[in-house]
């Protein structure tokens, strides 16, 4: 079943079915509902689609293993986003220790030699932006993906990242003014 724009009552119903009867289909539908956003966050943190797919699968397995929680829609989203961010950051740390991170980022940042003339300025702006993002550590990229690109509010982002709200607010302000 393809899940399009779902109503709050649908979400509440699925959450209730999961809490009350541990209905795996209800949780599966909720995870499908959040899959695109979860993938988007993971891809922005990691820089490529294959790793993002793996991270989303890992994160969803973590969510599936939870025995309690998901009191409401916001709590479910925070749980999913937090699992995605944590799995992505774990992957980055593992790669850094094996020096694979530099190799994968070099492949990601390559710009085609023959850029069409009408796209040259856009390609240059994207390259400059990616260079700036590459200078940030993975935690700051995760913060920007959640707060700026996904529009997750500061309180929820702080919960997802496991950081006090005020600390996240200050880090975000500092990062955006660099």
Structure characterization notes:
The protein is mainly alpha-helical. Helix content is 77%, strand content 0%. It has helices at 8-21, 24-46, 49-64, 73-98, 100-109, 120-135, 138-149, 154-161, 165-176. It is globular, with a radius of gyration of 18 Å. The chain starts with 7 loop residues before the first helix and ends with a helix. Mean pLDDT is 83; it is low at 1-5.
**Which residues form runs of ≥5 with pLDDT under 50?**
1-5
Total DSSP E strands: 0
Q: Determine Rg (CA atoms, Å).
A: 18 Å
Q: Topology as H/E string?
A: HHHHHHHHH
User: What is the terminal-to-terminal distance?
Assistant: 45 Å
Main β sheet profile: none
- Supply the helix-strand structural class: mainly alpha
What percentage of residues falls in helices of 4 or more residues? over 70%
Number of helices: 9
Beta-strand content:
under 5%
Q: What do the pLDDT scores average to? A: 83
Shape: globular
How would the blueprint of this fold be written?
Elements: H1 8-21, H2 24-46, H3 49-64, H4 73-98, H5 100-109, H6 120-135, H7 138-149, H8 154-161, H9 165-176
Helix pairs in contact: 1-2, 2-3, 2-4, 2-7, 3-4, 4-8, 7-9, 8-9
Tag the structure with descriptive keywords.
178 residues, mainly alpha, 9 helices
Summarize the structure.
The chain is built from nine helices and no strands.
